[in-house]
Amino acid sequence: MTGLSTILIVVGLFLAGGVYSFSKQRMPKGLIVLLAIASAMCLAAGVLRIQGLWE
C-alpha cells in the first residue's frame, strides 16, 4: 500500500513543519516535544511501509 505510506510521510513532514513553527513562536516545550515524537513516528512508519518491513 503505497498510498498509506505516502500519507504517513506527508503527515510526518507536516508535523515537522509544526515543530519548526512552534519553536519559532516560543510555544511550550512539552508541545514541541510531543509534535516531534509524532512526526518521527509518522515518518518512520511511512518509510518502513515503503521498504516492506512493516505491513
What does this structure look like?
The chain is 84% helix and 0% strand. The longest helix has 23 residues. The chain is elongated.
> Whole-number radius of gyration?
12 Å
Task: Describe the largest sheet.
Answer: none
SS strand fraction? under 5%
Helical proportion, percent range: over 70%
Low-confidence stretches: none
Question: Characteristics of this structure?
Answer:
single chain, about 55 residues, mainly alpha
Give the helices and strands, then pairings.
Blueprint: H1 2-24, H2 29-51
Helix pairs in contact: 1-2
Concise summary:
Helix content is 84%, strand content 0%.
